[in-house]
Amino acid sequence: MKKSLIITLALIMVLSLAGCGKTDSADKKSEGVMTYAEYVAAAMDSEVVVETYVQAKQSWWDNKATVYTQDKDGAYFLYNMACSEEDYAKLTPGTKIKVTGYKSEWSGEVEIVDATFEIEDGNFVAAAMDATSLLGTDDLIKHQNEFVTFKGLTVEPADESGAAFLYNWDGSGSQGDDLYFNVSLNGQIYSFTVESYLCDSSTEVYKVVEGLQVGDTIDAEGFLYWYEGANPHITSVTVK
Amino acid sequence: MRKLSAKLCLLLLFVLMLPCLTACHGSRSMDAFVIPEQFDTNRTYELTFWAKNDTNKTQTEIYKKAIADFEKAYPNIKINLRLYTDYSRIYNDVITNIATGTTPNICITYPDHIATYLTGNQVVVPLDELMTDSRYGLGGSELRFDSPTRDEIVPQFLNECSFAEHTYALPYMRSTECCYVNKTYVEALGYTLPEQLTWDFIWEVSEAAMAKDAAGNYLVNGQKVMIPFIYKSTDNMMIQALRQQDAGYSTEDGEILIFNDTTKDFLYTIAEHAKTGAFSTFKISSYPANFLNAGQCIFAIDSTAGSTWMGSHAPLCDIASEALVEFETQVMMLPQFDPANPQMISQGPSVCIFNKTDSQEVLASWLFMQYLLSNEVQIAYAQTEGYVPVTTKAQADPAYQDYLSRAGEDNSLYYDIKIEASKLLLNHAADTFVTPVFNGSASLREASGQMIENVTKSVKRKETVDDAYMEKLFRDMNSLYRLDQRTHTSPDEEELGPLPTLSVVLLSVLALTWLGILLYVTKEAINKRKTQHNDH
Asked: Strands, E, within B183-328: which ranges?
């Protein structure tokens, strides 16, 4: 009986170690690959090599893919990365990729452009980081492009007409275009976007936002994109 | 019985052959549109209109009002509006829908794009006969609205829609490019704006603006960021620079001339100023307006149709109010190599109609298309941005003249920068040009801008830009945009690529059928000869 117990405990321990090992290997960078800190420190327009994990895909066109990626330390937005349609299908959430490209900035959004990639072994899907308390602070930008959540927000009018959301930033669009909606927290108003390439009109989040009412209390998840300031690309909204 | 069998066999072969003939031609073509005798108002029509707006709510409302007013005049026609904010997305969607036979009825587009649509037979309706039809044509007797006559469309703008021996579109709005200048900073740097900008002046002032203090702030604005010269459309930048120097771009029938020494010299100049940080592009840095309004740019070149975003008091703005800087904005013609002979591009949306099997549906589309040129639509839409109406009738309308005379009365409808931009085009319409339109001209346009983007990025990345680089760049552009695979032919003669497998199979069956007929006829002839020979 004792022997059985010891063997069982030993097996559990080995399996636990194996499980831990998987997480560790996901964080370990290969030779010649930058850590997230090194990426942040790299100069604009310099070549960067990172290992990261696909979190979501925005679009593919003309052999170019735009992808939200993240490792355990931070996020990397890959804009128009060279990618065949066949490879694009392989970029499922969690897929590990090694990316070589150039660090660039466009209206405040730091991204990797003119990149190529190769798929590697490994898998990691980031949990949403609660950034509610960072809204409106200078620290929010440190989490640029990360998968984040904001809780307990109040839906505010999106324009003078009192609409809860707009198709395009000024209401010039129609169903299928980006959705823009305003939320408030502690008296400050923030603009959120449902990016139509990332979440089109058939997605749950698009439909939920189309059904929002001013005054609703919501939790929202998404990627902390930047355009002349924080411009989260929302992927999930829960009405309280 | 034997003779009957032979005849039956022959008949069977012909029956087999007929579908082959149909299949060979039917899959790609549609019958040419013929104007119906009379527009059938007893029927109802549901049309799709794909329109482009500049992410501008007023423009969207004008489209909706135009549709509502048109539907009042023609209660049997319903227009479904689909809005786009990007020409390239319309282009991609049209290409996809040509293949499935689901093109819209009416579509805002560019002539370069129509040239590609023409690769399919009878896809876009030629407008030559429609325009001159006495009943339903421009200014026609049967129209239920006040349409412009053909002579009232600015001839230059209408000519831009004519290629491959037909008119395939009507101009809808016209704009050009201009330079929005931070005059305050130019003067702070010790310069005076000339009457007309030259490239040399812009490069010189831009380099002067790169001076910094010991803390790394630019002297001219006291900020950490300054890109003195930002160009929105690098396609236009290259096209206009070449035109101004009378250098090669393409011939009318599509021969590619862009890979020349003038292009190379211009790219070297760009490289020199991109290296110092004095020049950048929209694709690399962001919208020129965002930098201009933040006091981080001195020369912002963009469309006149982007004028409502330009200036300290612009009605439309993407940057935070606390980032706005107060300065005087001057709207100027884009820089010239030869100021005595200015050249600037003519651009702006045109509208075309797609062919359908129902000619009445096409006629209904044509009626709506014409309505877009009525004064009500033209004047209202032109006032949303630095556009100009495409008809002299609208341009001369007292309501439009009144609008032009009230520049600066407010920062919305009468925003001075916007009206100055429109006036720039109205005063220099004769100095505008367009590039030749052919199947592949859209790719050539992309390549022309991409060379500037590549050179700018390369010097920022500290790569060497020399003759070897240029040779490789030209080769890469040729290959990437398939410019070296073009034959200079009319659209009707354009290479359609390899035949689909089904067509190959059907053509093989056809060939085998003819071979069978030939063998049978030969065999019959031999048998007949033998019989005749034996009879003798």
From this structure: 229-231, 279-281, 299-303
Q: Quick one: pLDDT at residue B470?
A: 98
In this structure, the answer to whether residues A87 and A171 fall within a common structural domain is: no
Determine whether the interchain pair A177/B82 forms a contact, defined as Cβ–Cβ distance below 8 Å: no
Chain A residues with CB under 8 Å of B85 CB are 168, 172-173, 177
Mean pLDDT (whole number) for A94-118: 98
Contact flag B457-A114 (C-beta cutoff 8 Å):
yes
| Average per-residue pLDDT for chain A | 91
pLDDT of B426 above 60: yes
Instruction: Return the CATH number at B213.
Output: 3.40.190.10
How many other CB atoms are found less than 10 A from the CB of residue B456?
25
B183 touches chain A (CB under 8 A): no
B83 to chain A: which residues are within 8 Å by CB?
Answer: 172-174, 177
pTM comes to 0.85
**Containing domain of residue A175, as a range?**
129-239
Between A and B, how many residue pairs show a Cβ–Cβ distance under 8 A?
50
Same domain, B188 and B266: yes
What's the number of domains chain B is made of? 2
Which residues face B353 on adjacent strands? B106
A161 touches chain B (CB under 8 A): no
Band (pLDDT 50/70/90 cuts) for residue B518 is: confident
**pLDDT score recorded for residue B398:** 98
Residue B471: CB atoms within 10 A of its CB come to 12
Residues A48 and A64 in one domain: yes
The predicted-structure confidence for A77-86, as pLDDT tens digits, reads as follows 999 999 999 9
Do residues B479 and B339 both lie within one domain? yes
Cβ distance of B60 and A172 shorter than 8 Å: yes
Q: Do A45 and B457 touch (CB under 8 A)?
A: yes
CB-count burial class (<10 Å; 0-12, 13-18, 19+) for A156: middle
- For residue B55, give the nearest of A45, A106, A168 by CB distance: A168
